[in-house]
Structures are given as structure tokens and as C-alpha cells.
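During the reporting period, our protein records have gained a C-alpha cell line. One record among many is quoted in full directly below:
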Amino acid sequence: MNASDAAPPAAADGGLPAVAPQLRALRRRAGLTLEAAARSAGLSPAHLSRLETGHRQPSLPMLLALARIYGTTVSELLGETVADRDAIVRAADMEPTRAGGWTYVQAGAPGRGMQALRVRVPYGSQGDIVRVHPGEEWLYVLQGRLRLRLGDTAHLLGPGDSAHFDSLTPHRLAADDHDGVELLFVHTLLQSPTAALCLGSPTGELP
């Protein structure tokens, strides 16, 4: 057994307690080594190992990346389960989760081909992270203003504006207002556990 696959300690204070064991279990279920999964996510093996042992807290982009690679959803990475695939998601059931400075709630049922999130992006959070991965994304600005860069073109979106784009186009998201920006965000989930994608530089250690 690889030393990095040793039993994980308790999650660090302020972390997401369900994430570490789920990350490891789902990677193994997908039949991926630590090195292969880290390479696909644009991370170093050491960084992914720290996520799996609870010594680092993953950001939302990391969770999205690993969910796609493992052919699952962020909900399953967080250890969330539902009794069935109800078409209705009640507001009272939308528990907020914080990761990497972002706050989000699941706005759709898990286990489907798309994932819907309501996301709050604070000012100055992860705006320098370039995201590139297979699939499609759609977002809708609810409050605040969003700076969206698609390839070499920068866009400023306000409330009521939306964007729908191929996720293979390098893209960056950042709040333009100091009060942050709130979005509805829908993206496709790839079911192949070996899907390749990259979220920025593998050396960029996010908070």
C-alpha cells in the first residue's frame, strides 16, 4: 500500500469532514491511482493526498474537477445522499456549503447528467484561476456584477445577464463588486471516470 493511502486523520478544524474519506473512496472506485487522479485534476499528488487526509480543504473548483473525473457529483463527494430522485428541491433542504471562499447550495437533485448550483463568489476570491474542462456551462447573474473572461475576451455581466459556453474555452470568474456576486450555475457532468480536465496551474495551491 502506498504511504499516501494510509488511514486519514480527523478532518482539520473548519474543513469539510465528509470530503476526505469520500475523495479517497470515490477515487478507488474509479480505479485511479493517486498520481493519475492528481494529474487529471491539474494537482500535484502531494496536494491531492492532503485533500484525502483532511489536511487541506478543497475549493469548489477542485470539487467540480474531481467530481467530473470520478464520474460523480459534488453532492456525493460531500457524502450527501437522498432517498430518491425527486424532481422538486425545496428551499428548506438547500444547505449551504463553503469551499475555497465560495458559498454554494445544491439547486438540483444529485445523480443526474447536469448539476445546478446557487453560488456566491466574494470579491477577490479565485479570480486568477483559469478553468478548462470538457462539457458546457450556463450561468445567470442574480445579484452583483460578474467579471467573466472567455479565452481572450473579457465580459462584465450584471443582474439578469447570462452566459452559456463550451467549458473547453479557458474561462475565469470573479466578482466585480466588493459585495460579491451571486449566480445560478449549471454544468454538465461527464460520466467517464477518466475524463481529463485542468483547473489552472498544478502548482497553484488554493485556500
Notes: The longest helix spans residues 19-29.
